[in-house]
Amino acid sequence: MIVCFGWRQFLLFVTLVFFLTHFLSVMELHQDSNVKDPHQKKQKKFNHLVLGPPAGEGLPNRLQCKGTKALNKIQISTSSNISNGGGGVSFVTIFTVYNSSVDDVKSRDAAATIVGRVSYNKVERSMAVLNTFINFIQLAMPESNMVILTDPASRLPLKRNRVTVYSVQGEYSRDKLMLQRIRSYIAFLEKKLEDHSREPTQKITNFIFTDSDIAVVDDVAQIFNKYENFHLALTFRNNKQQPLNSGFIAVRGTPDGILRAKVFLEEVLNVYVTKYMKASRMLGDQLALYWVVKSHTSFDEKTFNKAEPFLEEIGGASVLFLPCLVYNWTPPEGAGQFHGMPLNVKVVHFKGSRKRLMIESWNFFKSSSSSSTEDHDVSVSVSDMLCLVLSSGRTKYDF
Question: pTM of the full predicted structure?
Fold first, then answer.
């Protein structure tokens, strides 16, 4: 019995040692994982461009690159920017400056971001994106105008040719900015209707409402000639949850086009407020857009599966749907991102952390075009610049 009892004690001791050792190993592993997880889960943001293999290699009708050198060229239009029987095009965007007086930005925000040889604080950073937005438009469509919708409290240090700052009262907090954007668009369209009622014979101006983080690389005014029967245009992608993107909305500048676009956006605003206020900071406008479109029984969602333009009657408005692949291409989001950049791309959308890439792309274009001869084909420099975008688009940057 004494021997048996001693053996049992021995087994109990061995078992206790085994479990204690295993427990300590698990605790150590858990502590190690706590240290490593933040680096594993949160992708590092870079403060310089990082080139990777460009998507679309070997695919037809896609930009082919070797580093930042384009092996083929994107198709840049050579036609005039004047459209619709003598009318022009105005780009409209919403922009505001937060918690800052632009008179003393030099003394604020000591944590600066450096792009190339230029140092930016937060306000200057935002202004650099806005100015780059204007630069690209003036390159691709020099005859077009730009309207900046902003908070009356914002004093923007912006003096550019063909650019007008238009104040709209509203709530411009970060949490409500997407909501305010729709309200500002509606207020702007109401003003244009009033202008038409006072001067019925005034020249037609078509409008393209966009985010301020896009680069127009080709003439998009042609849609008003190519597709003559639409009132407003939206961009779509093959995405079941969010097939519509609000970063590009075109409105025909006739009184009928403006009115129908205003009514359409008022319906979107109503859906936004009643159904998607929890997503007011991000995505609420896109969810509301999709709700309005899909709520019409005649609409077939399968049409989003093909990257081809199509027309639909939505609530009395003729809506043209344009593929994001061409009119709202985003690296690496959106339809077609894994298949490279189409040669007929017209708009590149630098969403989220790609703002640095937007500014770097413009700087790259300037340096490459300025070093060329006077008779250099602009499409070559633009194509090389787009190779930079294509090779860098998957990287998270510090903007």
Answer: 0.84
Please list, in sequence order, all residues whose beta carbon lies within 8 angstroms of the beta carbon of residue 264, skipping any fewer than 6 positions away: 231, 232, 292, 314, 315, 317, 319
Question: What pLDDT shows up at residue 27?
Answer: 43
Token digits of residue 138 = 């003036």
Q: Which residues contact 310 (CB under 8 A, 6 or more apart)?
A: 303, 320, 321
Beta strand pairing status for 69-70 and 214-216?
unpaired
Quick: pLDDT tens for 123-144: 899 999 999 999 999 999 999 9
- Domains of the chain are 76-323 (3.90.550.10)
Show the DSSP H helices in the chain as ranges: 2-41, 122-140, 177-198, 223-226, 255-275, 284-294, 324-327, 355-370, 378-392
Strand, helix or coil for residue 176: helix
CA separation for the pair 292, 269 (Å, rounded): 10
| pLDDT over threshold 50, residue 107 | no
Question: What integer pLDDT is reported at residue 271 of this predicted model?
Answer: 96
